[in-house]
Amino acid sequence: MSSYTNKLPKMTVNNLSGSRKPTEFLLSLTVGPLLLGVLATDAIFSWLQTTGINSEEVFRGERLPVLHFPESGTQE
Fold this sequence. Notes:
The chain has 2 helices and no strands. It has helices at about 1-5, 15-60.
């Protein structure tokens, strides 16, 4: 068993700190697009909500013109 442990590479603190810097760099590169995606999603949601409220007003009839139909009994 001791021959097996002798063949393993020894890990030192220097090896761990060197592999940490690319991870931090990649993480910093992904934060910007992630925040832009969140802001874009919020803007799209707000636009869809406003569009839905406006279309509901149209279907409710508040913005439609009033049509006056003549009554059929007054013509005689």
